[in-house]
What we know:
By secondary structure, the chain is an alpha/beta fold. The strands form two sheets. Strands 1, 2, 3, 4, 5, 6, 7, 8 and 9 form a nine-stranded mixed β-sheet that branches. A six-stranded mixed β-sheet has the order 14-13-10-11-12-15, with helices on both faces. The chain has two domains: 2-166, VC0802-like, CATH 3.30.2130; 175-394, Rossmann fold. 38% of the residues lie in helices and 21% in strands. The chain is elongated, with a radius of gyration of 27 Å. It contains 14 helices and 15 strands.
Amino acid sequence: MERVILIKYGELTTKKGNRNYFVIQLYKSILNKLAGFNVKIFKDLSRMYIEFDEKDLDDILNRVNKIFGIHEYLVAYKVKTDNEVIKENVLEIVKKEKFETFKVDTKRSYKEFPINSQDYSRQIGGLILKNIENIKVDVHNPELMVNIEIRKDYTYIYTNYYYGLGGYPNNTLGKGMLMLSGGIDSPVAAYLAIKRGVHIEALYFEAIPHTSINARNKVIELCKKLSVYTSSIKLHIVPFTEIQEAIYKTADEDYIITIMRRMMYRITERMAKRRKCLAIVNGESIGQVASQTLTSMKVINNVTNYPVIRPVACLDKLEIMEIARKIETYDISILPYEDCCTVFVPKHPVINPRLDLCEEMEIRFNYQELIDKALKNIKTITISEQDKSEFEDLL
């Protein structure tokens, strides 16, 4: 019996007239992730099938598990759509399993097959009971599910399946500019945005010598973890030292973080426009720190008209940490290297800032000239999961 990996789309099937576009993008994502493997991929509007070499199965499944747009995936036996062939192979498959209870579920998309789904499930169930001792049917909580999908030319038989990541295939809904720090929240925000089909470019603000090369390396490692879920990530490194020092010298101490965030938003909007991004993405979570109260967010957000996506805005810290562990960014994020957002934190940052006071403090220095200079000196590197060659010269 030949085995194939069967991909189920889930949410993509709700797209009606646009379904084909999303299926094609998922097809391209899978082709990209499985480059280097000897595979053949076939698609239709409800399923995708991957033919593979058996020796590569575990590695291929590991990569499929990190592709957005997949609801479920499984390894199925592919047999000729013929009643006797199906029965013979079902018995051979279930005899390899250890179980005491089971259920048969048949889906008959090929309506010319002479037996309907419900009757065929009963027939196959009877066949299994007749040929295997000490087992029984349990339709509510079976130990073994025997799934049979009958199509025109071939029938697919499988007993297990895995949940995929869901969401939309990469780069189906435009590009976003991510404000990436070395903390826990922004990588999680990036992951959730990528899940919704947003292609991410990242902007990292560094203030050497106040921040270290280790802090930059930390962000690069975070991008490598995130690139597992996409093809690669462009990381734009913003020299923020002069701006941060100017703020520290001229702004009231309790307003330092608020003014700093407003400058970051101005730079991010400029870069988003330059890189043809449709939105800004960040890891702000309501009430988590002083700059993320609703009042602070409103005052900070005042400097841009760009859409701002905050995927973790309504998650609590424990929920964010759980996702960070799942995507393997948590241990990197907690490394003790400070970034711009933590190096100059005042003892009592304002939690309800006033817009007029922010504007008054900002005219104390020529921030526009400093922003122009920072934008002119941005360094951009491309990061993928395995390739290091493009940023070794920066480390």
